[in-house]
Design brief:
The complex is a heterotrimer of chains A (370), B (323) and C (340).
Chain A (H helix, E strand, L loop, with lengths): L20 H11 L1 H18 L1 H4 L19 E4 L5 E12 L5 E10 L1 E11 L3 E9 L18 H37 L1 H15 L3 H10 L7 H32 L2 H8 L4 H37 L11 H4 L6 H6 L5 H24 L6
Antiparallel strand pairs in A: 1-2, 2-3, 4-5
Helix pairs in contact in A: 1-12, 2-4, 2-12, 4-5, 4-7, 4-9, 5-7, 6-7, 7-9, 8-9, 9-12
Chain B lengths: L1 H28 L4 H5 L7 H11 L5 H12 L14 H36 L4 H15 L2 H15 L17 H38 L3 H8 L4 H39 L4 H11 L2 H29 L9
Chain C lengths: L9 E12 L2 E13 L4 E5 L6 H8 L7 E10 L2 E2 L5 H7 L4 E4 L14 H11 L4 H14 L5 H4 L9 H13 L5 E5 L7 H18 L2 E6 L2 H7 L2 E6 L2 E7 H6 L4 H9 L39 H5 L5 E4 L2 E3 L20
Parallel strand pairs in C: 3-8, 3-9, 6-7, 7-8
Antiparallel strand pairs in C: 1-2, 1-4, 4-5, 9-10, 10-12, 11-12
Helix pairs in contact in C: 3-4, 3-6, 4-6, 6-7
Classes of the chains: A alpha+beta (370), B mainly alpha (323), C alpha/beta (340).
Chain lengths: 370, 323, 340
């Protein structure tokens, strides 16, 4: 044949429009339902912290010595006559012959949504008196019982999340910044700077971390205001934690520094600063995000551990760790097992963060991309 | 190899000295010293307090105090405990021994359980074993150690199967040596479980992940192509390669164990180094703190050295003496 | 032409290997037929992603999750390999059929010395003792062109270059004198000069041992020099099969023609752009109806969109899967938008 028919239009049969790495990662993460669920749990936990006083029926400092170790108030869904009602009721409790609490069906109070309770400031600005739920007047309604001073465990749990959850975030932000600075400098400049900085990291990492935490927290004076303690604990956590992250960042910086696109940028005369900001930092970004998400549970556990031992956030400011302190007494533990509630919450928080971190890591790791 | 070891050991010295300095500095940050708490006693006159200070050598400028300590430490004299009035070394040996006992048992437990389970999970990927193992691992690393300790103590209390904390029963003196051994073993069980579970979970995940990655390698397909049985492929080629990154972790796990032990000891009343450090820091017993830091750091560094050596021995690609 | 085709060593009929991914089922190998003759080399040619590597792995049933062989037959000496229990299949692997892979750098276990894969094969299939196997290993290494084999046999993979590692792989593959060697892009990862050496080695071994070779490659130059027969693969299907001569002199499938046209020639006019095949390989998850190549085909007709063409006989032994079967006598320099 000498004649060939006219050529056809070039058709590009690709697999769809191109996406940025960020979009690809987000898509991958969205498909991971477990990680998304974990992400929702984390958001809910932080919402709980932000709206702490709104959700809790009692102020955290409210002491009722007569009602110490009161069990969780029974909630029933029928009225006095025994008919089912949509309005839940809280039952009163009285002490029986063995000096233990038992439900008293004759005493009851309705649990109302958007109840009027104690005064507080939402987000530290808006003065309000409205709470998510509660009973009117002085009826003792303790969803999770009370502690040894008669304080409502549920309220302290909810407000305690403010401390426990925020410490993780703030500490990671600081640790991150220090780690980025130190690790980036060490990796980028190399030579003596690198040597000195890495030696410093080595020294810090050679002390078992909890010993260092105990030592630092142990020297904190006891009479300082809680806000200062809060900041000091964050400082201590960051001090113990930055070395690890700095090393990771240094590793990435070192490898990225040798990549061709950095060489090319240098050859084009781009300034050091621009190279760091435009090329090196973005590469550290993905690993840093994953490390950070997985480090937050570490900080939360560390703060909880310190507070549990009495070294971190101290009474009366509630933190999940120090709320568990009274469980050290086995007698108390067996009698008032609800004291363990904060422990479960720590567990849930850590699992949620770990799951999320894992999911993020899978989504951002190009090798695992389908 | 010998040269490498010597070089590393020599390198450790400045590190440990740096650590001792840091621990000293931390203590100096605290207002007052050991005598300060004692001086609250109104019965003590100012002169008596000053005399005590001089006795303990606490009246000298702190740099001098440090170098005096360093000088002695290099001759392996770590000073005296201001609270217990016995040499630091003696005090620490006891406590360190107990912590080590706990740590080693936890190490054996976690690795002994984690490795087989991790291999199993990787080989039977996505079956119920795998899912169960992954779930367990996840829960394990997420559980706060002290919380688990509390739960287990509650369990021990309710069932009476295990002693509740401590290292010896109250009538330990009346026991025969073998009975005493068994007594300690019983006391060891729950703390080991608490300390070991966290590590177990982490290692299991690592083993599984590492083996899964290794089984994707080309040499695995190549060995199957030679007709080797699946068992040989997985153990001889898969496992041996997969265990590599874990050997590095093995050395570092001592650090985590010492750290974790501190918390467990405090909750379950195990008389180890962790409890000692807490007391010493709070009372200003500085030589105990410094001695403990130096000891534990040395152990940690030795652990790292051990894993580096182990890695070099098992992996032909690694030649010692480089960097 | 002989009236009766010589008995095949290996016959593949309707082989289908599918991959069950999260996004859907990808039919990597979708019904192919192949014949490998004893002592001869069949070249399996195609672009990356066309399914040729998967074909090689399927012959040894080495396809890994999420892939699975879902249909067809692989007959060797009358027996369907897909019916064999795994322990029987393992006896075949390395002994009757051996395989070498594309990446010599990662195909050897880095923790074991180079003698190990050889010893493994020999002790497993030939039941040799350690010393016997070691002696034979040295012999094998020498026969694949490794000098100083007595010493080299104890080296570790990281001490050897890519070319030498590939030789070691070849040695372990031929250790038990297999009837068929599957070579999956054996030279793609190697330097050009080493490539030539390795291919020469394979030709020599074939001449000495009468071994058949399935040579999987994307490089037509390699095919021309080393293969007796050629099968061209595209998007999971074989689109043309012929003797090597026939394929190069009279390619009938537009894809094969495109491949040949795309090979740069020294006498190609300097000012003209190099010819390419427009478009790209279709996504296996979204295959077009009818002929899989039609979206890139200059000659596509209505029928091509409706019905998928089967392999049709062009001449004795030469088959092509195309409704149009355009002729093609010499490479045609293609100017933008113009055909001549």
């Amino acid at each position: 044949m000498s004649e060939l028919p006219a050529p056809q239009e070039e058709t590009l049969e690709g697999s769809g429009k191109s996406q940025t790495p960020g979009q690809l990662a987000w898509g991958q993460l969205r498909r991971n339902r477990v990680a998304m669920a974990a992400g929702i749990v984390v958001c809910l936990l932080y919402l709980m912290a932000i709206f702490g006083e709104f959700i809790s029926p009692y102020p955290v400092a409210d002491i009722r010595p007569a009602l110490y170790h009161h069990p969780p108030t029974p909630i029933v869904w029928h009225d006095a006559a025994g008919h089912f009602s949509l309005q839940p009721y809280a039952l009163g409790m009285k002490k029986d012959a063995k000096d233990e609490y038992v439900p008293d069906p004759t005493v009851r109070a309705p649990i109302r949504l958007f109840n009027t309770g104690f005064a507080y400031k939402l987000l530290w600005i808006v003065p309000l008196r409205i709470h998510l739920f509660g009973t009117s007047g002085d009826f003792p309604f303790f969803p999770l019982g009370t502690d040894h001073l008669g304080r409502d465990v549920f309220s302290r749990l909810v407000v305690g999340s403010q401390v426990s959850l925020s410490i993780g975030l703030v500490a990671i932000a600081i640790t991150f910044s220090i780690g980025l600075l130190v690790g980036g400098a060490a990796g980028f400049y190399g030579g003596r700077v690198d040597n000195v900085l890495m030696r410093l990291c080595e020294v810090l990492q050679s002390i078992p971390s909890f010993y260092l935490l105990i030592a630092l927290a142990g020297i904190l004076p006891t009479k300082i205001p809680p806000a200062v303690t809060f900041l000091m604990i964050i400082g201590i956590l960051s001090f113990v934690g930055w070395a690890g992250l700095a090393r990771v960042i240094r590793g990435i910086t070192l490898s990225v520094r040798e990549r061709e696109y950095v060489e090319a940028a240098r050859a084009l005369g781009v300034s050091d600063f621009k190279i760091i900001v435009r090329h090196l930092l973005p590469s550290t970004f993905t690993i840093a995000i994953v490390n950070a998400t997985l480090a937050i549970p570490g900080f939360i556990l560390a703060e909880a551990g310190l507070s549990f031992l009495g070294l971190g956030i101290r009474d009366p400011v509630p933190s999940w760790g120090n709320m568990l302190n009274e469980a050290r007494d086995l007698e108390v533990l067996t009698r008032a097992t609800w004291i363990l509630a904060p422990g479960f919450l720590i567990f849930i928080t850590v699992i949620a963060f770990n799951t999320l971190g894992d999911g993020l890591r899978d989504a951002l790791d190009p090798k695992l991309r389908r | 190899m010998i040269r490498f070891l010597l070089k590393r050991l020599l390198n450790m010295l400045p590190l440990v000295i740096g650590i001792s300095f840091i621990s000293f500095a931390i203590l100096r940050l605290a207002p007052g010293d050991f005598v300060t708490t004692l001086s609250q006693d109104p019965n003590l006159s100012k002169e008596a307090v000053a005399q005590m200070r001089a006795e303990y050598g606490l009246d000298k400028p702190w740099l001098v105090q440090y170098f005096l300590w360093l000088f002695n430490a290099l001759r392996l004299n770590f000073g005296y405990s201001l609270a217990y009035h016995i040499p630091v070394v003696t005090l620490m040996m006891q406590r360190l021994g107990n912590t080590l006992l706990l740590s080693i048992c936890a190490l054996a437990f976690s690795w002994g359980v984690a490795i087989p389970l991790g291999v199993c999970a990787a080989v039977r990927r996505n079956t119920w074993i795998d899912r169960f193992v992954s779930l367990f691992a996840f829960a394990g690393i997420s559980t706060p150690g002290f919380f688990l300790a509390l739960l287990l103590l509650l369990f021990a209390q309710k069932t009476g199967w295990f002693p509740i904390g401590g290292m010896h029963s109250s009538d330990a003196d009346l026991m025969s040596p073998s009975e005493r051994l068994w007594d300690v073993a019983r006391h060891l069980m729950l703390p080991t479980l608490v300390l070991g579970i966290g590590g177990c979970a982490g290692i299991m995940r690592q083993m599984r992940g590492s083996l899964l990655d290794t089984l994707r390698e080309n040499y695995i397909t190549a060995s199957r192509a030679r007709g080797l049985s699946e068992r040989v492929v997985i153990w001889k080629h898969g496992f041996r390669n997969a265990i590599n990154p874990l050997i590095t972790i093995f050395g570092f796990s001592l650090a985590g164990l010492l750290s974790g032990a501190a918390l467990v000891e405090n909750v379950m009343s195990w008389p180890g180094l962790g409890r000692l450090i807490l007391e010493a820091v709070q009372s200003g017993d500085q030589y105990v703190v410094m001695g403990s830091f130096v000891m534990s750091a040395t152990l940690l560094l030795l652990g790292n050295l051990f894993s580096d050596v182990l890695l070099a021995v098992t992996d032909p690609r690694i030649k010692l003496g480089r960097g | 032409m002989e009236s009766a085709t010589p008995a095949s060593l290996l016959e593949v009929r309707g082989l289908r290997t599918h991959f069950y991914t999260d996004e859907g089922i990808a039919p990597a190998v979708d019904g192919i037929d192949l014949e490998i003759l004893p002592g001869q080399t069949l070249g399996l040619v195609g672009e990356s992603g066309c399914g040729k590597s998967v074909t090689g792995l399927s012959l040894l049933r080495l396809v890994a999750h999420p892939g699975r062989i879902v249909g067809g037959e692989i007959r060797m000496r009358g027996q369907n390999l897909l019916d064999l229990p795994m322990n029987e299949m393992r006896k075949l692997r390395g002994e009757q059929i051996a395989m070498i892979f594309q990446e010599p750098m990662t195909s050897l276990d880095p923790l074991y010395a180079v003698r190990d894969p050889l010893l493994e094969t020999l002790r497993l299939h030939r039941k040799m003792s350690k010393s016997e196997a070691r002696a034979k290993a040295v012999q094998l290494l020498t026969s694949v062109g490794i000098t100083d084999a007595e010493r080299r046999v104890d080296s570790y993979p990281h001490e050897l270059s890519g070319g030498m590692r590939q030789r070691v792989m070849i040695a372990s593959a031929i250790a038990c004198d297999p009837a068929l060697l599957i070579a999956d892009e054996p030279t793609t990862a190697l330097d050009v000069t080493v490539q030539a050496q390795i291919l020469a080695l394979l030709r020599k071994l074939q001449a000495e041992n009468g071994m058949a070779i399935l040579l999987i490659t994307h490089n037509l130059g390699i095919v021309a020099e080393n293969c007796h027969h050629v099968a061209v693969m595209y998007a999971g299907k074989i689109v043309e099969k012929a003797s090597m001569r026939s394929i190069f002199q009279n390619p009938r499938h537009p894809y094969t023609q495109g491949l040949l046209r795309a090979v740069p020639r020294l006498d190609h006019p300097v000012k003209q752009p190099l010819p390419t095949i427009p478009g790209s390989v279709p996504n296996l998850l979204h295959l077009p109806t009818g002929c899989r190549f039609r979206s890139r085909c200059v000659w596509a007709q209505q029928k091509c969109a409706e019905e998928e063409p089967p392999l049709m006989e062009v001449e004795g032994g030469h088959t092509s899967a195309c409704w149009v079967q355009p002729g093609f006598t010499q490479p045609v320099p293609v100017k933008e938008g113009v055909t001549a």
